[in-house]
Amino acid sequence: MSDRLETPFDSIEGSYEYVELLTEVIAETRRDVEADLAQAERDGAERRKQALLLVSFNLSKLESHMTNSRRILNDLRTLRRLLLDERRPLAASAAGH
Q1: Helices 12-43 and 46-96 meet at what angle, rounded to 10?
Q2: Angstrom distance (rounded) from CA 69 to CA 48
Q3: Could you tell me if 57 and 26 are in contact, meaning their C-beta atoms sit under 8 angstroms apart?
Q4: What are 7-44's pLDDT values in tens digits?
């Protein structure tokens, strides 16, 4: 048994899945905040509304960063597959010579 615990970041695929889940949670949280914002507007709670607008803005930025991270991880997965697939034929042809 390994002393090292497995984490979502042990592989590019695991990291991609983690970031994807995090993006979903952020989107869900943004929807909740939007509902809270609408309620604050109905209640005339201006200070709460301002705070929720800031929360919404920061969640939007975070969601954008996660989307960009997911794209980068996907690019890395694609590049790794490309590199590994290119190495296999080279190894096979080198073994044949």
Answers
A1: 170
A2: 31
A3: no
A4: 767 888 889 999 999 999 999 999 999 999 999 999 99
Average pLDDT, the chain: 87
In the numeric block, which tokens belong to residue 65? 């960063």
The structure tokens listed for 47 are 């200070």
CB 23 within 8 A of CB 67: yes
pTM over 0.85: no
Dist CA 2 CA 24 (whole Å):
32
Pair 33, 91: CB distance under 8 Å: no
Domain ranges of the chain: 12-96
